[in-house]
Specification:
mainly alpha; MetI-like fold; 12 helices; two-stranded antiparallel sheet
């Protein structure tokens, strides 16, 4: 009778067991942490709003109706249409503009963090794995960028290239790769001395295969955790640039631009600047709560 151990079956059982433990830990955390549930509800709601803004409000976000200007929340216009969050100084529906503004904020944050992750991970991997001149050049470049105020640098670059959605994504991505580069470099410096990397080198495995198969999977969790807590900062940065007039064009609904244009009506129509600002605060809070949880789950030293 064969006594061969079914290694594939054992590996599958271990994988399923690990997945079950992970899902059980998530379920227990959700049951005892209402703040995390609130964070997920915010993310799901904003995600649906960004994907399907017309379902939340049927009005055109740029349609002006001077006869219905500065209606308070819940006000009804001359045609019988109700505006649940009121209208601004030219009669545009605030709920529609906030819903469409969520698409801008979430798109900028998502794509900008991808640019940061890709650029920073590539730089950190190259610096940590090869060292030498490449490490010196990249790390000194990171030191120079870190010495400059982030928002000031972003404003200067955005002012040079002009306001557009693509420019905001590139500006926020290129000016914020340093944290990812330093994180990946520090971990690669430790991992490249490990036994499994030395064994792969002894077997003649190419450098790119060592990086992609052995090193990258070990740093991916930390990078994802950093990206999760970086997204709220990117939403605030995009709102700040739009508030200053160097973010997305004013014709595109954005939360920062709405606050900037509505601040002159703070004493007469508080809902015009306050509600978009409240949307920024709630979304940043929700994503921060989930980001902190994700960081705890991906970093075993924090459990």
């Amino acid at each position: 009778m064969s006594t061969e151990i079914p290694y594939p079956m054992i590996r599958n059982e271990i994988r399923l067991s690990g997945r079950t433990i992970f899902l059980t830990r998530i379920r227990r955390r959700l049951l005892r942490d209402p703040a995390l549930v609130f964070g997920w509800m915010i993310i799901v709601g904003v995600g649906l709003s960004a994907l399907f803004p017309t379902l939340l409000s049927p009005y055109d976000p740029n349609a002006q109706d001077l006869a219905s200007r500065l209606l308070p929340p819940g006000g009804v216009d001359a045609g019988g249409g109700r505006h649940w969050l009121g209208t601004d100084w030219v009669g545009r529906d605030l709920l529609s503009r906030i819903a469409h503004g969520s698409r801008v904020s979430m798109s900028v944050a998502a794509f900008a963090v991808v640019v940061r992750v890709v650029l920073g991970s590539a730089v950190g991997m190259t610096s940590g794995f090869y060292g030498g001149l490449a490490d010196t050049v990249f790390m000194r470049l990171a030191d120079i960028q870190l010495a400059l105020p982030f928002l000031l640098l972003a404003v200067a670059v955005a002012a040079v290239f002009g306001p557009s959605l693509l420019n905001v994504i590139l500006v926020l991505g290129v000016t914020g790769w340093m944290a990812y580069g330093r994180l990946v470099r520090a971990q690669v410096l430790s991992l490249r001395e490990k036994e499994f990397v030395e064994a792969a080198r002894a077997l003649g495995v190419a450098d790119w295969q060592i990086i992609t198969r052995h090193i990258l999977p070990n740093v991916l969790g930390s990078v994802i955790a950093l990206a999760a807590v970086d997204v709220p900062a990117l939403i605030l940065a995009e709102s700040s640039l739009s508030f200053l007039g160097v973010g997305v064009p004013m014709t595109t609904p954005s939360w920062g631009g709405m606050v900037a244009l509505g601040r002159n009506h703070l004493t007469t129509a508080w809902w015009v600047p306050v509600l978009p600002g409240l949307a920024i605060a709630v979304v940043v809070l929700g994503i921060s709560l989930v980001g902190d949880w994700l960081r705890d789950e991906l970093d075993p030293t924090l459990r």
